[in-house]
Amino acid sequence: MNWIEVNSNVQPASQTPTGRSSCMYPGAPPEPPIEGPAAPAAEEAPIVITLEEFQKQPVLAATIISQPLNFGLKNAHSNVYAEAAEQEFTFDFRDATIVLKARPIAYQWSYGDGTRLTTSVPGGPVAGNTFDTQTPTSHQYADTGDFQLTLTTLFAGDYSVDGGPFQPVAGEAAVVSDPHLMSIWRTQGNSVSENCIENPSGIGCEAPTR
Predict the structure, then answer these.
(1) Does any domain span residue 37?
(2) Domain containing 147: what range?
(3) pTM here?
């Protein structure tokens, strides 16, 4: 505190600084603060690749193949199948390097006639391009005509952050293939004794119709 001199012989009393000062503290001086361990730094949130980020990657759609190509018969099994491959992508995300693997796990078929089917297998070719061979992905069309077959392939994803262990993406990416034309025709059986060279006007020698 700073000391002052008070002269009460004059009115009003005057106050003159003496230039002296002193420290007055009641009781014992305060204890110095105790140093403890530094507060832990806030942990950075882990990097998670969401389904939205997965779907931003250029995952190639499956290729639709029909056997024989684009052709089938009414009421017979038309064999169609998909060719889909596992794929891998590397990209930067939040200052980390991400490796993402996409693998096909399910196939949602829409045959173009109102019929739908989901399979866990892509199907495959049958020997000899034979007609009316049932497969896990084949379909019987009840009418003739042209039908646009579509396919959505579901891909599961696994990702690694900066070379760490792979972990799954929550959900599957849906990738739609280009439509595939199926042209369905009818057949008619007859017994004949001559071929079309011997009898050009015979049964079955005329131009095909639906």
Answers:
(1) no
(2) 51-185
(3) 0.70
